[in-house]
Amino acid sequence: MPNSRPIRVLLAKPGLDGHDLGVKMVALALKDAGMEVIYMGMRQTPEGIVKACIQEDADILGLSNLSASLIPMGKRVIDLIKEKKMDVPVIYGGTILNEDKTKLLDMGITATFSPGTMMKDIIQTIRELVPKEKLQ
Amino acid sequence: MFKSDSIERIGEKKKHWEENVLSKVPARKPTFTTLSGIPIDHIHTPEDIQDLDYERDLGFPGEYPFTRGAYAPMNRSRPWTIRQVVGVGTARETNERHKFVMKTGQTGMSNDFDVPTCIGLDSDHPLAEGEVGRVGVAIDSMADMETLYDGIPLEGTSHSFTINHPTLPILSMFLGLAEKQGVPFSTLRGTTQNDPLKECFAMKMFSFPPKSSVKLLVDTWEFASKHLPKWNITNINGYPTRDSGGTVYHELGLTFAGAINYFDEALKRGIDVDVIAPGISMMWYVHMDFLEEVAKFRAARRIWARIMKERYGAKTKKSCMLRMHAQTGGGAYTYQQPENNIVRGTIGGMAAALGGVQSMAIACYDEALSIPSEKAHRLSIRTQQVICHESGIADVVDPFAGSYYMEWLTNEVEARSWEVIQDIEDRGGLAAAVDSGYVDKLLTQQAYSYSKAVENKERVVVGVNEFVSEEEDEEPEIFRVTEATEREQLANLKKLKETRNNGDVRRTLDDLRRAADKNDNVTPFCLEAAKVYATEGEIMQVLRDVYGEFKPPSVV
């Protein structure tokens, strides 16, 4: 599509979890796929992430967490997104088991990615989530 | 080891064989490499190891350069220590789990801590919410250490603490407990991981900036060299470097570069290499390339021996002899079809045993999903017992020695590791190379190329990109820490802060701050603070105030 801008993705690790390899690789893969990626780094607070999401005008918010705080952290981010009535799909990567996946989708996370996910699947999901009109 | 005319003849015959015999059948792919990307030949011959000198490069087990083993008898005398990692929930819950695994046949005690403890934050810190007791035990003060060791004797068992930046407060709590029980420091056996640099670039549970972290490490080394003769004060750990994307030679090279950074600083402080080196051991990852892993363990012992003798002029055998722990790689495990990980763990355990490690942990098969269930724990221990008692591996020492491929690969892994060591040295040492973001960037790029190789199926991972199950995998029984754990820990901490002598806490923390300001050795001051139940977070905060906090550079 002519004159379309790249998808802007904000990536962040909420909480104290230090497993940052996955999110860094996702950042590289999304860049290689032509997206604009802002990776905030680790040890981020939910408040800081949501603030950055507004400031950066992100099309997609990607969270990563490979520790047990993934549910409480996901909930705190989603609650803030709802509170601020933001229209940003939130995707979540990490050690997400089936029962976690259900919980996360129920609370309003749009998609989850468990270990072993292929990059092409993440890229495709993001492309489907951002409406083409938004990129004009 | 070979006559030069026979080498020449073998070379000619190999060429002939390649052209006239081998070339008749096409290979299934154009090039073959090890998992670390080292190109490998179809077969290896004496040609590949023509410069190998048995006495210089291999020697005998228990003798320089220790390629064939750290000790003469190796597993024939005492088999490796089964040291599965334990740590879950509160100190009380972990104490119960410890008693369970010891009954199952575990011979050493290993403690993993939850994320807040590893970072140096108390359970009641706002950022700790949701993490308390989740992936390991929460230790806030010496009171938790007392609970953790309730009914477990300090003497006669070896105790391992996977703690890095907060080594000072955690070790102090353990020593405080020993003092309270009247157990002399000189009898305590165990290990503190205490390898801070890899936290800053790989494990990411850091607190202090790289250079400060080395200063505090040297404080503990100085203390240990005087007071803890049987304690392994540091277990330099290559595991996270590999798990963060490094190849086998990054694992060795960066880890030895860290060792060099620590020893350089320790020797500047006047610590005698022959006093401290025997208490330093190393830990490695076990990835899936079985033969490359065996080569790595052999190369590691030789590199260590050469660094100690040639760089530091170590005089004793004990200084040059590297003792190693291995853990099968969590990153080599898959989330898909988790029971396949039992097989991966077995292969890894065999590689570690053939590589001659002194202790090992086989990651539990549900590790990719959660912290291990009791069933998974038992299976890992049983796997080690089967390897040890049924496979025959424990009955012979270094059986791969002399294999053309194994000796060539051992040399190759060693040479590539020295290149990494030199590269880091040229960048001012590991602390400086970490500070600049160089190391993190290097590992991330490496991991990214590997992930692309998996994605395009150049690398097959069973159950992930090939041999995928049609139906959704059934998840094994998962061990979950409940929220009650966090509540219990917070209640304990609150009670402690109300009942301890807060005047003593303030006084000892002030003393610690003064010592830190003067850049003295802070270890004795941490010990005094721990003994009056100052919390981990309180002790660490004083140290962070003085020595700073690490802000990792952006690498993507």
Question: What this model shows, in words?
Answer:
The complex is a heterodimer of chains A (136) and B (556). Helices cover 42% and strands 17% of the residues of chain A. Chain A is α/β, with parallel strands linked by helices and 136 residues long. Chain A has a single domain (8-127), classed as Rossmann fold, CATH 3.40.50.280. A five-stranded parallel sheet of chain A has the order 2-1-3-4-5, with helices on both faces. The model of chain A has no long low-confidence stretch (mean pLDDT 94). By secondary structure, chain B is an alpha/beta fold. Chain B contains 22 helices and nine strands. Chain B has a five-stranded parallel sheet with strand order 1-9-8-7-6. A four-stranded parallel sheet of chain B has the order 2-3-4-5, covered by helices on one side. The longest helix of chain B has 23 residues, at 404-426. In chain B, helix 6 (167-181) packs across helix 21 (523-531). Chain B has a single domain (54-455), classed as Methylmalonyl-CoA mutase (TIM Barrel, Alpha-Beta Barrel). Chain B has helices at 4-20, 54-58, 91-104, 115-119, 142-148, 167-181, 197-203, 210-227, 239-243, 248-268, 273-276, 290-311, 317-320, 340-355, 374-389, 404-426, 430-435, 438-455, 483-499, 502-517, 523-531, 536-547; strands at residues 81-82, 109-112, 159-162, 190-192, 231-232, 234-237, 280-286, 324-328, 359-361. Chain B is globular. The A-B interface holds A 15-21, 24-25, 27-29, 31, 37, 39, 41-43, 45, 67-69, 71-73, 95, 97-98, 114-116, 118-120 and B 115-116, 119, 121, 127-131, 134-135, 203-205, 243-245, 334-336, 368-370, 443-444, 447-448, 451-452, 455, 461, 464-465, 472, 475, 478, 481, 552, 554-556.
